Amino acid sequence: MSALVVEETSIPGLLRIDLVLHSDGRGWFKEGFQRAKLEAQGFPPFEVVQNNVSFNAEVGVTRGVHAEPWDKYISLAHGRAFAAIVDLRAGPTFGLSETFELHPGNAIFVPRGCGNSYQTLTPDVVYTYLVDEHWSPDASYTLLQAYDPELGIDWPIEEAAAIRSDKDRGHRPLAELTPMVV
Fold first, then answer.
1. Catalytic residues
2. In sequence order, what are the beta bridge partners of 127?
3. 60-75 tens-digit pLDDT
4. What is the pLDDT of residues 74-87, one digit of tens each?
5. Which domains does the chain have, with CATH numbers?
């Protein structure tokens, strides 16, 4: 990709970002987050207070769907992953989902109240995300069953072969959720 591009999606506030990836025989380099350049493309104000990294060794690791009371900027440092974002905010787009294939050359901005989930497509995925609020066990989270058929998400790896936590398996379907007020 030769230019930074920020694109809106069908979910209000959810953005897809094409990053500039500079590659040569040694590997690659990217500006994973550069506020001034992103804001010039219409990116919202976003004050980063925490950086989180998740390492996933195997293909098929499936995490989420988790909606938190903060905004997230997600990018991969290594590998490929399928991301599914579900709007869990009160309003006309409640339950609407968007999917993306993430790799080091792109990113997504997930607004607070949208549920984030992903599934690794390669081994050794390094998933990194910036947030604008500190994590807290007392925060209000909305958790959704990733394989709920009502969502219509076409996961690349079927549920029986996905590597999931017991906690994620136990999340409720969309029909049982109260929309998140943000």
1. 66, 129
2. 54, 76
3. 999 999 999 999 999 9
4. 999 999 999 999 99
5. 46-176 (2.60.120.10)
